[in-house]
Amino acid sequence: MTDPRDALFKSLSDPTRRALFEQLCRGGEQTVGELTAHAKVSQPAVSKHLGVLKQAGLVRDRREGRETHYRPQPDALSPLLDWTSEMAAFWERRFDDLEDLLKRMDQ
Amino acid sequence: MTDPRDALFKSLSDPTRRALFEQLCRGGEQTVGELTAHAKVSQPAVSKHLGVLKQAGLVRDRREGRETHYRPQPDALSPLLDWTSEMAAFWERRFDDLEDLLKRMDQ
DNA sequence: CTGATCCATAACCCAATGGTTATGCTTTGT
DNA sequence: ACAAAGCATAACCATTGGGTTATGGATCAG
To answer: Residue span of the signal peptide, if any (chains A, B) (predicted)?
Structure first.
């Protein structure tokens, strides 16, 4: 029932969280400590954000001793790409609709 | 200073708002009344959402007498596409990094 | 002119969210 | 065995955010 896009958009709507995901995409797998070092918030905040990203399927974690390694899962972005192109497709269709085109032309 | 992606992601993170934008992409230009008819919230709520979408550049409005017509502006989605492919690009690069690939292979 | 329609804004409420500090559980190192 | 490190969770707080009803300003119809 819950649209997977919801989780995706919501996860990425927060700048801090998006920065974390970017950091992971740029640098690949990293521990919470490394991520916290680059972030501008506390370690618990980072952990919470990573939890949200994980639940959205954007990251995966791997425990190794006392440290947890997170890595990006960019495949999870595909629903977002799909939705965007879907919207673009509707947009294209409107150019084929002469009636609508004329309506738009007179401002 | 404020990343334009912020406004985009935040605007689209709300299901009601995304539904409004989809409705506009599917049906083209529509009045607030028409949009409210399809929405599951009150007219003021629709107006507020349209305001947010407008400020994010996702829609444009056109007043005609006492009614306001809104139309989608899908071009505004391109920063989103750009960001997504940028992240995907980082992801691709990691496959070229043999060291990282090996590290990932042993789980 | 008057009443109705269309929409935006105001004022308010409650839930969700992002941040913090405090704490506790493993794991590591000595 | 013990202290420290790494991380997650708990508890709490302030702000944001999305919803509502109420209202007001244009515009149209009669």
So the answer is: none
